[in-house]
Amino acid sequence: MIKIKAYAKINLALEVMEKECGYHRVNNLMIPIDLYDEITLEKDDKIIILNDPFPGENIMEKAAKLFFLKTKIDGGVFITIKKNIPSAAGLAGGSSDAAAILKGLNELYSTNLKKEELIEMSAELGSDVGFFIETKIALCTGRGEIIHPLDIDTPKLNVLIIKQDIGLSTAMIYKNYSYDGNRKEDKINNIIQALSTRNIPMLDLNIFNDLEPVALKVSKVLNDGFNAIKNMGISVHVSGSGPTMFVLNPTMEEILKIKGAAKKDTIILLTNTF
Ligand SMILES: C[C@@](CO)(OP(=O)(O)O)[C@H](O)COP(=O)(O)OP(=O)(O)OC[C@H]1O[C@@H](n2ccc(N)nc2=O)[C@H](O)[C@@H]1O
Ligand SMILES: Nc1ncnc2c1ncn2[C@@H]1O[C@H](COP(=O)(O)OP(=O)(O)O)[C@@H](O)[C@H]1O
C-alpha cells in the first residue's frame, strides 16, 4: 500500500492574458502549502474509490484511467481519500489529487515514468495538475501546464487561510475575465527577488492575481469578507479563482481579529509554505 500527501497551493502571482483555443495564457507563480489530502493506493483489478466524495466525476478516477491507457497496463487501483483541502476553493485540491494518483500508480506499478512524462500526462487532466508532480515553487506558463521550477531557497511563510462557506467555479471566473493588455512582468520579477532576499513586505506588496477582481465582483459574500479584512488594515489576497483568501505571516492579533469577525462555517486555518 502507498500513502501519499496531496498538497494545496496558493498563487503569489497570476497574470492572465489572451484566450487561445479555449484557455487563457497565464504566468502563474504557485507555491505549495502544508495543507493536504491523505490518499492511499492499493493494487486492485478495478478502479475503486472508497466513499467517493465526487461519484462519477472524480478527477482521481480520470487520472487512473489515463495512466492505465497510456501505459497499456490492464490494471486497477483501490483508492481511499481523506479530503482536508476545501473544494472549489482556488487551492487546487482536485488537481493535486490527480497528480498524486499519477505519481502513486507510477510507483505501485513500477512503470518508472519520468517526471517529464508525468507532467505531459497531467496536462490532459487539467492546467494545474503538472505543478503537483514536483510540488515545488514554480512559474507556470502556457495555460499553466508548462512548469518552470524556481531555483530559490524560499523562506517558510506562515499562511492564514480563510475560506468562507461558498465555492467558485474556475471556468466561470475565467469566463468573466477580460484582458486589458497590461503586462505584469515587473511585478513577477519583484516577487522572485523578494523571495530570494526574504523581503516579506516587498513580497506582500507585489502579490497580484488578475482573477481577484473578477471573483470579488461575482461573489458578494467574498467581496464583503475581503473588504472586512482589508478594513482591519490587514493585507489580504485571493488565491487563484477563489474564494479562498490568504494573509501572509499574520500576527496573533490579526488572526484573532479575523476569527472574531468571521461568519460561522468559515474555515480559518494557519498553515505554511514549504
Ligand atoms: C485558476 C487556477 C490558478 O492556479 O486554478 P484554481 O485557482 O482554480 O485552483 C488555474 O489557472 C486553473 O487551473 P485548472 O483548475 O487546472 O483549470 P482547468 O481544469 O484546466 O480548466 C478549467 C476551465 O478554466 C478555464 N481556464 C483554465 C486555465 C486557463 N489557463 N485558462 C482558462 O480559461 C477554461 O474555461 C477551462 O475549461
Ligand atoms: N478529487 C477531487 N477533489 C476536489 N474536487 C474534485 C475532485 N474530483 C473532482 N472534483 C470536482 O472539481 C471541482 C473543483 O475542484 P478543486 O480542485 O477543489 O477546485 P479549485 O481548483 O478551485 O481549488 C469540485 O467542485 C468537484 O466538483
TrEMBL record:
Pathway(s) it belongs to = Isoprenoid biosynthesis; isopentenyl diphosphate biosynthesis via DXP pathway; isopentenyl diphosphate from 1-deoxy-D-xylulose 5-phosphate: step 3/6
**Reactions mediated catalytically:** 4-CDP-2-C-methyl-D-erythritol + ATP = 4-CDP-2-C-methyl-D-erythritol 2-phosphate + ADP + H(+)
Which residues fall in a coiled-coil region? none
Enzyme class, spelled out: transferase
- Which residues catalyse the reaction? 9, 128
- Pinpoint the GHMP kinase N-terminal domain residues: 58-129
The protein's matches in Pfam families, at most eight in alphabetical order, are given as: GHMP_kinases_N
Fetch the InterPro entries from UniProt: GHMP_kinase_C_sf, GHMP_kinase_N_dom, IspE, Ribosomal_Su5_D2-typ_SF, Ribsml_uS5_D2-typ_fold_subgr
Q: Which GO terms describe its molecular function?
A: 4-(cytidine 5'-diphospho)-2-C-methyl-D-erythritol kinase activity; ATP binding
EC number assigned by the record: 2.7.1.148
The record lists ATP as bound by 86-96
Keyword annotations: ATP-binding, Isoprene biosynthesis, Kinase, Nucleotide-binding, Transferase
- Biological processes, Gene Ontology terms: isopentenyl diphosphate biosynthetic process, methylerythritol 4-phosphate pathway; terpenoid biosynthetic process
NCBIfam families named in the record: ispE
Q: Which PANTHER family match?
A: 4-DIPHOSPHOCYTIDYL-2-C-METHYL-D-ERYTHRITOL KINASE, CHLOROPLASTIC
Q: Which family does it belong to?
A: Belongs to the GHMP kinase family. IspE subfamily.
Q: What does it do?
A: Catalyzes the phosphorylation of the position 2 hydroxy group of 4-diphosphocytidyl-2C-methyl-D-erythritol.
Family matches, as HAMAP family:
IspE
What is the name of this protein? 4-diphosphocytidyl-2-C-methyl-D-erythritol kinase
Q: Which organism is it from?
A: Anaeroplasma bactoclasticum
